[in-house]
Amino acid sequence: MTRKVAWFDVSGFEKNFFKEIDTDLTITFFEQPLNEKTAELAKGFDAVSVFINSDVNEKVLKEIDVDIVACRSTGFDHVDIETAEKLGITVCNVPEYSSNTVAEHTFALMLSVSRKIYDAINKVKDGTFDHEGLRGFDLKEKTLGVIGTGSIGLNAIRIANGFQMEVVAYDPFPKHEESKKLGFEYVELNELLERSDIVSLHCPLNKHTEHIISEEEFEIMEEVVLINTSRGGLVDTEALIKALDDGSILGAGLDVLEDECGLSDDIDYLGEMEDKCDLQTILHDHILIKREDVVVTPHNAFNSEEALTRLVESTIDNLKEEKNPVNL
Ligand code: NAD
What we know:
The protein has 13 helices and twelve strands. Strand 1, helix 1 and strand 2 form a beta-alpha-beta unit. By secondary structure, the protein is an alpha/beta fold. The protein folds into two domains: 112 residues, NAD(P)-binding Rossmann-like Domain (Rossmann fold), CATH 3.40.50.720; 198 residues, NAD(P)-binding Rossmann-like Domain (Rossmann fold). Strands 8-7-6-9-10-11-12 form a seven-stranded parallel beta sheet, sandwiched between helices. The protein has a five-stranded parallel beta sheet with strand order 2-1-3-4-5.
């Protein structure tokens, strides 16, 4: 059977990719993300494929009537898994496509903060070729705290070993073999926050991890650099701004922001933004973006040629064979 797929939020890369390959899926591309406004486009299809900007909530799932929602991402917090399960819709993700890619971006952010790369480039572009105000710090012998030792977290630890950092990690499902092999130590979350010079987030966003770093956690940290390439909702944004102001956080490198949907061009008017996102949080996002001690990239950690190729290839397999189903 040829599965008819509505492929939402298509990129130029994906359109070109499909020109080069033969597939027995019948794919129709839509430029828009899938959400309440666009759900009717999915009518008559057997499956939908969505990127992270989609909002596949209960209302959308009830309207679209498909067998599969194939996420072109590792995280699937933009899909209401509980409702999908009740409706008998399989939701698939792509677990491994960017585990080295996101780990590499983690270090791009870390080095941007530790070596003030952004300020240095701007200074030179402005015509000043000196190092006034650009002194950074070494990563060597600093302690990196990794929260979440899945595929991205473990790759970040491998890279940290190359920089001769000490690594402590927290994960409710520890991988003791890997900790022996890679020479890192599992500790409780509070101990990690107390001991780390740099804290990097690599756990999924769900009801247990929302605001896993909040006011209480910032109080434990002392002069720490926070890196988040996972999901914005893991960090309480208002508390982060306070922690930057009081110096418990020295700087931050963020690829993801809380309520980043409110920063996207897809928002047509303020009322729509208010419906989808918390305006206060969006205001705080803008404050973070403007700060000199914070480096923000636009949810771009996955975005390498090689990772995108793996992403599309695995999504095709998921659509054909219902591989990589996710659970609650
Ligand atoms: P993974 O499933 O391999 O690993 C997640 C790890 O987090 C697991 O080891 C799990 O046990 C651990 N975990 C679960 N609950 C936790 C908690 N409360 N505290 C600490 N650890 C906990 O996932 P991954 O491939 O390593 O990806 C991690 C996250 O990175 C994804 O969920 C996604 O949100 C994010 N991501 C971001 C980008 C990007 O472009 N910025 C791209 C891919 C993935």
